[in-house]
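Running co-folding for glutamine.
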Amino acid sequence: MIQTHILGFPRIGAQRELKFALERHWRGEISADELDATGRTLRRRHWEQQRDAGLSFLTVGDFAFYDQVANHIQLFGCEPARFGFSAAEPALARHFTMARGVAHTLTHTHGDGCGCGAPAASGTPALEMTKWFDTNYHYLVPEFTADTAFALAPQRLLAELAEAQALGLPVKPILLGPLTFLWLGKAKAEGIDRLGLLDQLLPLYVDLLTRLAAAGVQWVQLDEPILGLDLPAAWTQAFERTYQRLAKVDVSVLLATYFSPLQTNLPLACRLPVAGLHVDAVRALDELPAVLDALPLDRELSIGIVDGRNIWRADLDTALAHLRPALERRGGRLWLAPSCSLLHVPLSLANDASLDAELRRWVAGAAEKLAELQLLKRALLKGDDAVAGELSAARTATDEQRHSPRVTNPAVAQRLRQMPAGIDRRISAFARRQRLQRKRLKLPPLPTTTIGSFPQTPAIRAARAAHKRGELPAQAYREAMQHEIAQAVAAQEALGLDVLVHGEAERNDMVEYFAEQLQGYAFSANGWVQSYGSRCVKPPLLFGDVSRPAPMTVEWARHAQSLTQRPMKGMLTGPVTMLQWSFVRDDQPRADTALQLALAVRDEVLDLEAAGIAVIQIDEPALREGLPLRRAQWPDYLAWATRAFRVAASGVRDDTQVHTHMCYAEFNDILPEIAALDADVITIETSRSDMALLQGFGTFRYPNEIGPGVYDIHSPRVPAAAEMVRLLRKAAEVVPADRLWVNPDCGLKTRSWPETMAALREMVQAAQQLRHELARGARAPAETAEA
Ligand code: GLN
Ligand code: ZN
């Protein structure tokens, strides 16, 4: 018997119906009931797709209006007390409050005695959001405090179950397993041990599984992807007693793991008393033989053979070569599935209007992956001959992709082979570069700068949209953007900033903008993937060897520099971030693709330098998030990722200053590698942690210059100079002041001009005040020594 199933389906809708309905609901344009109806329609449509594709089960529990982890917070009744929900508040409204917070109704900056009576950080902040394992999906983080208590609220899940059951097929609900749910949460008070909550939570799972069984469910999938992490011993030990307890319920549990090899947890996963085990045979194909050895034959084995994380068509011959012996070993019983939930790929790419016919043959969205599962099943059951036509079509497409001249560019391969030794090293060590750069740039101490983007105003977006629709000719669009750049430059001069930026008006997105100008990239019209809530991204498709046919930013930078005497920073996206935020080809190691990107960026860096740009920033906000889930794989990743950055950055003269920028993350565990980038200046996000994130840089004695962000650009609040002075003084305790820069946490594209100007004015003032203090201190060292 071969069964097919999925671990979750995209929920946003083929035309992003859920996104638009959510946004209309939040604007008050449609009621909760109307939104609910959209949800019902989408769920039904997606189950019908699963049914029509011939899957053995319909999967329930993967739908969420905002987030599936927030669904679990509600399912187990542990909404944080700080939201002060009343029993009368509908569950959907509470879901959105947790996701989006409650804003203070008066939108103004609290000043001394503004008298509004609201606390400084007013309103109720949303739950924290963080990345779901190593994906670009963000989940809402459960909060555990001393008063956390659980109470089962299964109404929503049971209602969705009934909706699916009405379609007449077996239904398999999916849930986060209790250990992964606790692991994903955050203890919000000293002395709270998440694992300590297990004994309270477990009875609710027992109760829930019992109710699902009573509702006619045979299989329940419990996701425990943390089995792919390096877990503390107490957590691995907790698996045995947890699943022993759940085994007492009369329902079959399918334990699902994904994203990462099981490694040392493999024997544990195979011996837990569950009815079935799902493994990710895309990320951990090497482990499949060990799983086949260890998993008792009375368990079901679900093999995640179709890639749930990438959009390339499956290589069915290779898949069958692994599945056939597995099927035999399992006595003819096997489940087939995508490696993980299909949430991470677009719904469909088969008819995408922007991909040409050839590319459309190479890709598979969620819908196409369902068909791949069915085809594999039929080939296994009936033999290749029964599906010869379809198999050969698939084979032709795979071969075509492998050998297409669009994919392989011999010149790129040759360049990679012939890279000179030392291509990833600057000419001189930092101390000499610093001296030469200081001589050339003549900046004051504590130089001020920004991270790159200035507000992307409605006018800018409208001009770009009109240009894309063909209504605004290229020349007029270019002039409109040059005008924006001129305004940004004038604004920065008026503020008295030291190192200027052109403001990135002409960029839609920091990856897509470059990808559009590189060979080897393609773009879908509708390949949307949910990032969080109603937010979707459309990652570019990196399908072939990367090269740069022409300079990408030089004209803009030259124009911007011509408008000012001050140094103008050239602004580029680094190779690792280009890789991380794209769907990347899987026919060669990511390290090789990163190097190709690095060479393209390197060429751009050198062209900028030749155009007279003295400061060049290469953004790598995604460097940290590319880290593998298993620590043992960190060194390899960090070695190639940092090398790619250095290849991009190291072609320049000693007196050209290279900056990098990173955000969204803790850096302390990879400081040596950040230092190994050897950027002359790094700007990082630190203000929200009150400079705590900077501590590690001090302890580690980070050798080059640092701009710790002094204000949070995610908030419309305008910070006062005094706050930034305080943060800078704190920073100066950790990093010598002569190596400090003054800048915001990140780019300003989401802000408006008035708040941007107000905040930067305060920032420049803060820098000036600190410079005076430093100058006084230098004149009277004894005074400071005693202070
Ligand atoms: N230069 C980019 C900007 O300012 C950096 C964005 C980022 O770090 N995510 O918008
Ligand atoms: Zn940033």
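Result summary
Residues 105-121, 781-787 have pLDDT under 50 and may be disordered.
Residues 451, 621, 661, 663, 746-747 surround zinc ion (ligand 2) (CB under 6 Å).
Job closed.
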